[in-house]
Structure formats: C-alpha cells, structure tokens
Amino acid sequence: MSDIFSYDAIVIGGGHNGLTNAAYLAKAGKKVLVLEQRHLVGGAAITEELRPGFQFTTFSYALSLLRPEIIQELDLVSYGFMPLLMRSHFAPMENGDYFLLGPDAGLNRREIARHSKADVDGMERFEHDTARVRQFIRPLFDSIPPNLFSNDPADTEKMAWLLKHLGTGDKKVIHDTVRLLTGSIADFCDDYLESDIIKATICSAACVGIKLGPMSPGSGMNWLYLSMGEHDGVGGSWSFHKGGNGGFTQVLARAATAYGAEIRLDSHVDHLITEKGEVKGVALRDGTEFRAPVVVSSLDPRRTFLEIADPRELPSDLVETIQRFRFQGVASKVNFALDGVPEYPALSGRTDQYLGFMNLAPTVEYMERAYDAAKYGWYSEHPYIDACIQSFVDPDMAPPGKHVLSCFVMYTPYELKGSTWEAERENMADRVQATLQGFFPNFNDLVLQREVVSPDIIEAKTGLSEGNIYAGEFFPHQMYFFRPAPGYSDYRTPIRGYYQCGSGTHPGGCVIGAPGRLASREVLKDLGGGKA
Amino acid sequence: MIRTTPFHPRLAELSQCQMWGNWSGYLSAVRYDLSSKHEYFGVRNAAGFFDTSPLHKYWIRGRDAELLCSFVFARDVRTLKPGRAQYTIWCDDAGFIMEDGVLFRFSADEFMLTAAEPNFGFLRKLSSRYDVEIVDATEDYASLALQGPRSRDILEVLTPDILGLRYFGFTETKIANTPVIISRTGFSGDLGYEVMIPAADALRVLDGILEAGHPHGIRPYGDEALGMTRIEAGLPLIGVEFNSSRYAWTAEERFTPDELGLGWLLKGIEDDSRPFIGRDAILRERADGSSRWRTIGITVAWSDFYELFESRGHLAVPDELPVAWESMLYNANGKRIGYATSFMYSPILQRHIGIARVKPKYAEPGTDIYLEQTVNHEYINVRATVTTLPFYNPERKTA
After folding, report:
1. Distance of residue B367 Cα from the nearest chain A Cα, in angstroms
2. Tens digits of per-residue pLDDT, A325-367?
3. What are B10-24's pLDDT values in tens digits?
4. A9-43+68-77+242-325+476-527 architecture in CATH?
5. Option in A77, A104, A107 nearest B350 (CB)
6. Do A82 and B351 touch (CB under 8 A)?
7. ipTM above 0.90, yes or no
8. Are A428 and A452 in contact (CB under 8 A)?
9. Total-model pTM
10. Coil vs helix vs strand at B288
C-alpha cells in the first residue's frame, strides 16, 4: 500500500478541461490533485517535437472555441497565454484557381466578386444573420443547462430564465437559429450564396469531426457550434496559440499549479472508490489510492460512467443512455515536417495564403462524396483536409526556412469494414499526401517526415472513445439538456461527490474550457466555502 | 513634392497597401500589411523593422560637449559612458517638458542626439558660449528600428559585434561592408535594436538585413503597429501624451517630468548641484508637492467591456488601433478627475489598456475610476483600474 493523501478534490485527466477545472477549484482555495495517465499534460491538446526543431500539434491544432472568460478569470496572460490570430483563409480549387480571404474587408469583397458578384452582399447578409444567431445563443452556450426533469426550484428558475430569453428573440433570429440547428449547412448557404467555392469554404467548417456531410441535416448545428469561437471579440474566429496547442495546455498547467493544484503524471486511474453511494477517492492501475470527497472526471461519458465508475452503482436509464451514446470518430490527423514552402502555382512566390487555415475541399459535392465513404465503413478516396502551416504564424514551430504542416483529415471512420487501421493507416495517409500533391506540385519533394494519427491512435493515446474528437458525437439528442444524458447535464452524477467536466458535457468539445469552468461552479456550490 | 527615405524603394515593394503618412516631409508607412494587427504580432512574435530615417540627428562635438549636454538635458549625462545611450528630456525654465530624445555618447567630447522634432536652432543658440559644434546629420543617415524576439538572431548573422550589447549600449560595426551604428534601443518595449546607416548605403544594408531575417519571419511595420507596441511599453509619445511647452497656448498643455511619469530620469537632483534648465522649478514643485497630475496606466476588465456593449444589444468587438482622441475619466461620484491620452485593446494582454493622467490622489494602483465611452450614441462610463506602467515588459527586453 502506497502513501495515502488527502485532497479536497481529485481531477481525473490532465487535458485542457481537467486543467481548467483544477485551476478554478484551486483558485477557490481547494486542495486539488490532477491525475494524468500520460507523461505530459494536455490530453488531445499537446505539441510534440518529433524531429529536432519541428513541433507537431499531434491532435488538436488550433485554439478554437476557448471562452474569453477563462483567459480573464484565470489570468492566463500572466502564465504565458499568447494567441496568434489567423490572417488568411485559403481554399484551392480543382481548376487551379483559388478563394483567398485576408484581413482587408474591401479586398475580400473584390475576391468574392471574382467568383460571384451577387455573393459579395450575399456573404455580408450571411455574416450578419449568423452573428445575430451567435449573439442570441451565447448566453445558453456559456451557462449550465437547466435540468428539464427536476422539480428543484433552482431548475424551475433556470427554465423560466431560458423561456424568457427565448421570448426576447427576434422572429428572424429565432427562425435562423432553428434552421441552423436542424438543417444542413449546404441548404443554409444556398439561401445566401451561389458560388460553389464560397459555399464549400463555409461548409468545410461544418464538416469537422462529425459523421455528417454538408448536405446532412445536423451539419448546420455543427457549423454554428464551431462558429462560437471568439478571439479578441471577433465572432466566429479561431486562432493559434504560441507553441501550438501544447503551448496552451502548458499555460493552463502553470496557472493551475500557481493556484496550488498538484499535477501527478503517469497516473492512470483505474476506478473510483465509493462507499454507500458516495465517492471516497480513486485507485490507480498500480494500486495507489488517493482519497478525496470530490472526484471530477474529465474523461468522456463512456469512461466516466462505464469504466471509472461501476455501472452497477448507477441508475439503469443513465447506463443505457451512455451505452448507446454515439462516439463513432471519423477524423484523423496527418502531420508533416517540410523542407520548404509548398508552392501553389496560381500564387507562385506568395506565402500570405498560409497564415491561417487552408481548406482542401474544393466543392460542396467533394465533401459530401468524401463523407459517403464513411457511411459504408471506409475512408475517403479524396479526403477533405483542413490544413495549416503554423510555422508561418509562429517561427518557433520549425527551424528557420522549414515548416510543419498539420492536416486534419475527414472522413476516416473508427471502424473499417473488413479491415483495420493497422493495415490501412499508411494507405490512408498516402491518399492525404496524394491530395496535397495534387494541389501543390512540389509537395512530395518537401516531405521530411510524416506522422499518421488515425482514430484508433487518438483513442489509444488520449483515451477519447472511438477517437471522437468531441468526446461524443454532436447530435441534437446529445447536446444541451441531453449531454451526456437527460437529467445529468449539470455536471453531477448519481454518485455523490462524483462530477464530470469533460467535452462530453455541455457545451461540448473543441479547445473550449467551458465544461471545465462550468463544472467547477457546481462543485464549488456543493463544497461551499469557495471564493470563485 | 513629398520626399522619400533612402529605404523607400524597398519599402514600397514590401507594402501591400501603399498607405503612407507624412513624417517631417517624408513618406512614412501607416502600415505595410493589410492589417496592422499582424504587423504588431510580427514584432511581438518574430521581428519587425520600422523606418525611423526622418528622426532628427544632431552631432554635439567639442571640448564643452558634456558641459552643454549636462546643462540642456534634464537627465544627468555626466555618468553616461562612451558606447552607451540614454533616453532623456529637456525642459523650459518653468520646469515644463519641451521634448524628449535619445542621447548617444561616442567619446568624452562627442555625442549624438536623436529627436522627433527639429532642435538645431535651439541647440546652436544654447551652445554659443561653449566650445561646441552642432552638426545636423539628419540626412546623412538612414535609420531603422529592428524590434522583436528574433532581432538578435537576425543581426548576429550580420555582425557578431552586437552579441555583447547591453540594453542602451551601442557599437560601431559593419554590415555588408558598410560602417553602421547599432544600438540596443527602440520604442517597442521588446528586445530590439536600432541601426544607423550612411544614407548612400542604406538599401544595401537593408537588403542584407532582409535576407538574414527572411527565415525568421522579418517584416516591416508602420505607424499603427508602432503605436500599439509603444502604448504596451508605457512610452509617452510627443503629439499624443504631450507637446513641447515652447509651443503651448495654455498651462493645461504643459507638463512637468513628474506629471508625465518621467521623474525617474531626475533621480538624485536634490543631492546634486548640477545646473540644468528647469532645475529650480522642478525642485520647487517637488518641495511644494504641487504636481497637478500623475501619469498612470489604466486597464478595463474584459467582463466590464463586454457588458458595456452586450447589455445594449451590440457586439463587444475591441479595437487594437489606438484611439486618436482623449477619453475623459471620472471618479465614482461622476466628478471629472483626468483623462486617458492613449487607449487601445492589447491583443497580447487580452484587455484594454491606456495611458492616462489623473489628479494625484487617484493615482494609487488598484483604484477604480471610470472611463467615458460612446455606445449607442450615448456617453457611458465603464469601470477602469489604475495600474503601473509599463503594461508589457518581457525579460528579453533587457536580458
């Protein structure tokens, strides 16, 4: 029996939500222990130097939906927080042309007009309408969903607030919200735009991480969700972090530690320790036990309820809901170390197109066909790739003159029909590289190293079930009141003292921090004595 | 016809927007990129260079050079060693600041002053009773400021002589076989250098710097990004924080070193008999405690800024471009207590920051004061907090 320690709270998992949660609890004066299974913190937000001087963002690759409240409330700037805003958005086309947006609104109008004159003002209407939808749903996004199934006066009050908020909405804004939440992004775009490359550029943002194509109902909701990013107050924007996403989780770890949290690496939690329906601590795989009256799991719902907890201690409705909770990861990463700059013939000699994302998804139909393969258990012959060369934005990511290219690849289903990822991993990466070679004729000559991260590897390394990057699929029945299960959306569990704070809870996945932050409020409410 | 600096042919090629302002009769870039925010990040994250050629440059040479400088400039120059530079100010007899600049000491009897405004007549007139020669070298040199964390990496490729340079040290060395003066100075609050180059060789040296800088992401930056970095660095700018007292119309337009937050330049004057212009008035101000203002930093919390706009149906979109006008400051009772001279959203610090002047009793760090903003065509006050300057001061600046 190893040493037994006492803590106010134990956080399982040192990913960005676990660290966020721990930082808030520690800042409120609680004695907190974070247990991370790997040798480094960050979970799916890490940066690894796989080759001397080349920094790879192994999994997640951008600061997407990080809530501005967290930056301020945890004073992350003091711990090294440094966002690097994207300057461009680049979409190559199959005919060699391109769609390239930059920081100048006037020039962007000219660029849109090159593809469709009608889309110049069409795009402005699209942006205004969707910004109003974001403003309308933001209060719901950044607060704890009411428990629909509770008679607690606090929940009744929250429901009343929700209904009141919905009542204040403008008729058009509410209708646009429902159109996005229930419809396809392709249909929504058709109402505003005619140019296929411009529609494809918008739709590509809806096809990240979910097993849906741009024409599937539900893709509108994913688009809206991913557009909730806000950096420097610019709605819909994403950014990079200095040193990649691992740079960001290091900032969180420094903050959490500075507030007094203790982080223990190489500590794989095996199970909860409970007595009479109350949590008492956790036991590691090596048998070490840590005791605390509060345990917060940042793992996904499957691991939180079916693996770490003993399902026999949980109500059967919860267990059944979690058993049928959809994960079905479809995304992979293929990362490259490059010897130089990829050349796009129509922009020969230029590099300003590489200061943000580039979407290799030249038409809406291209993406839909890429999705088709996944429906039938195979990866896309022509994958949709969301790529970025972060070394152009952050010179510390690669040696001078060299580059790192991160490719987020859709669609690569977790379960392959009649084969395994072990057999298909390199073949899939070959498809990715062939796609890149198709757009950048010098690409193959630049490749110094290739890292392939298929869904099985995401699962094995980060613990995300079936490699789902959001810790659970984004379907309406798995969101808000229902994330992860009806009646359990307030971060509590039926086991007293056991809480959830991962991306499988409201609002959901991405480098967002909101689950970690919102869960800390509930924990502190129950613990009492918190300063936060 | 407006003039161009020796770097201009290359700068015009690098400019994506051809937006130029006018600095002392020379074209001076507002920005080069389509967005000055990205230039700003270039400085904070890699390296940027700013064309400072229109700066006025004066040689002050001769047996009495130190004597003259110690009389004209309020900061004591006698302790300045050859190979070192200092930021300095000069005042009028009433102890009000006329201007600021940087004084370089080349030897016991040779100095160079760089200043934003013309001062040749002023210096020559004051030097008439000294054994000193004042030479206007403004057009002899092109100059650029290379600022940012990669600035040292870039310059060391060109001349290893810069490696030993301490903050505010300078060296005479060569780049591309051209004699240059490189100082570890700048206006960005970051690691950085300034390079003075004989005008005829300016392009050749710039091309050498560009070539060495390319793998490090070097880029030019203009006046907007300069303004952002200097506010974060808490550095006052003539024409914004103050104007020369010599050209003021009213007492409200004149400021003493203590009022402008530059009292630290005058450390020890109470225990020393060095005569300099303004000395008696400054000592009297200090003895009487008669300063009217204190210069402070202000920050606005993100949540307060957000609430200010979102509660009125607007999106809270902060602007990193420095506000081009003064914004009034109030106490909790709505009484006016001062004004912000500079105000912007700092992307690095993730909050609004400003340089402000307030009545001394409100200058304590942590004090809540209220900044006037316009929302929905109405003046609305938002809470601001008094802080010390600078806002941004990375270790690498002086390390």
Report:
1. 19
2. 999 999 999 999 999 999 999 999 999 999 999 999 999 999 9
3. 999 999 999 999 999
4. 3-Layer(bba) Sandwich (3.50)
5. A77
6. no
7. yes
8. yes
9. 0.94
10. helix
